[in-house]
Amino acid sequence: MRNRFLLITWLTLALVTSLPANNIQVSDVRIDQLFKDSQYAYVNLDVSWENSWRLTTAPGNYDAAWTFVKYREGDGPWKHATILGAAGVTGANIALTADQRGAFVYRSSAGTGAVNFDNVRLLWDYGADGVEDYALVTLQVFAIEMVYVNQASFYLADGQGEKFYPLLRNNSGGGSVVYRVTSESPIVIGTAAGNLTYGTGGTAGGGGDNGTLPAAYPKGFKAFYCMKYEVTQQQWVDFFNTLTPTQQTTLDITDASGKASQAVVVRNGVTWSGSGPASTSRPFVPVNFVSPARSAAFLDWSGLRPMTELEFEKAARGPLTSVTDEGVWGTTTRAQTAYTIANLDLATERISNPSTTAGNVVYSLTQPTEVAAQGPLRTGAVAGSPASPTRQRSGAGYYGAMDLAGNVSELTVTVGNATGRAFNGLHGDGTLTTTGASNVSTWPPTNTGYGERGGDYSLTFYFIYTSEREFAATTSNAGIARRGFRGVRTAP
Fold it and tell me: Using an 8 Å Cβ cutoff, are 308 and 217 in contact?
């Protein structure tokens, strides 16, 4: 029996992306070739999505599918597969990671539109994972849409000094307050001329807590991949359903520390009976009511990591010079009329009256009037609404990340206290503790070290400024309705 490798593949959709028009799917998952002597096996899959791009003009970047494999032996727990290599696919590049947690699949040449990469082959080192040749194995392959953020210098602050908020700025003692990040070298946060400083707009952003931002803290200069959208409720449920019963109990967002209900609350439709699989009636809406610790568990499980607040500003602004009072879409104009929604609660949910002359963003003035829609909209709903989308009309960041402002706020690792500054950018390894916690010891353990950027559906206009930091060094241990999260990964 030891010469037989019996493997059952579970054909499964990828983690569904938030914009249904992009429709990322993984299919035809199977073992394609087995190398018993070395205990390797090729996992074959097809991956496709719409509205893909690779650009030769600014910003000169591309989108990609972060692709990783989970396996289980018999009825045992789901584990993360070690990916040792990959076989080439016509029209696609496959970028492996040094920690062997997965691979990025993306266009090999310039183009836009739908992509369908058949027969992507990821080399699984099942021997390293302790799987015997005769094991009965089930596979799931997941894919998450990402955007590539190029290595480049960029600016913090928006050139206007400080009005409402404790922005990060250059302590120049006069002249420009913009601070330029030119490398991943340490940054001194202090009161001397030329230091990075917090300003005086409040303490929630970390004002007065000075120190050094170490070289290991991801500052956004180096290239990284950023999730195109916040984590959706379907993505959360797919993650949750691979956990053990004990881990599920820890990470259940329907309990008292989350939304405290099995009903739909602030558009969160996740439900779980206390055993078995969870489900959601709002799969395309961003998941909210997720605490920082539970967010970290998802990111660890998927091989990603939390985003820093400097990476947030880089993803939003790109390498461009700051604009006073700018939104993530690069201008100061913003929609100021309440939106109405078409196709409410469907996968095609969108805004039926987007602005054609200003940045579209979901915040207090544009929050839709439908009572049932109070709360976040489907992720990507803003981008999917204009007939002739541009960066401004879609509310998109410079590199193509959507919903960085408004809708739900972004959970970020702060520079505003010592706990946040100790973050060294390690990626998740795909494995959680037996109780469901992230096992990456250098990530902020709870709410201390995290904060929020980008504003949300309930807050007024100045909270959606790119440089605004009112909540940048403070957040709640509990899950709250207005906050979401997305993951990033430093480029290989």
Answer: yes
